[in-house]
Amino acid sequence: MPSINPSREQLAAFAEGMPADTPILMLNLLRYREVAEYPAGRECAPCSGREAYKRYSRTALAKVQGAGGQVELMAAAQVALIAPQDEQWDELLLVRYPSKEAFLGMLADPEYRAATLHRTAALADSRLIGCLPPA
Length: 135
Known about the structure:
The chain is of the alpha+beta class. The chain contains four helices and four strands. It has helices at 8-17, 49-66, 100-108, 110-122, and strands at residues 24-32, 70-76, 91-97, 123-131. A four-stranded antiparallel sheet has the order 2-3-1-4. Helix 2 packs antiparallel against helix 4. The longest helix is centred in the middle third of the chain and has 18 residues, at 49-66. The radius of gyration is 15 Å and the shape is globular. The N and C termini lie far apart (35 Å).
């Protein structure tokens, strides 16, 4: 079952489970749709999932940086060595934030929230995993 956006329960578990006031890394695994799927009635030019994700990224990158974060790594996924056979990813991103509070604040930003329309249209599946950087 695809996972694109976090539920309230997932956000609450993240907020509770990640330590406060410490840097975090967010691992993003992304699989793009061949053609972006926007909701009916939205005036968005047709495009690929990758192009829709670029639309999202234009706002998201500014918001990441505004929250004190930065992209540590962006890479094309090639071959999964250990994974379920039907699990495939196109890209991975590793993003550093100064804290979970900075990350959650970014998620609540109205401009960021509006841009997630493009992320949702772009992705066939995703994972977002909170990690702690090495000490």
